Predict the structure.
Amino acid sequence: MLALGRVSTEESIQIIRHALTDGPEAFRPDAAAACLVAAEKQQSDGNERKAVFLYDAVRKANLPAVYRSGATRGAILALLYGRAA
């Protein structure tokens, strides 16, 4: 699943988002990690809006707090970075 996050194409993002929201509960933490990786990739490519979209998906998912707090941090940085650019 992390490989899909590293690729971070529109198709791979759709797959990991689907796994995050509708996939088996056991796979959702892996999907969340992949979303965080994809969000970082999107942010580094200058797509802060898409990064925040991915971070928000993780923040809204029923996951352990460590994933939600990582997504919150990422969203804040993406928003700050987007305004500074």
User: Anything to note?
Assistant: The helical segments are 2-7, 10-22, 28-44, 48-60, 65-84.
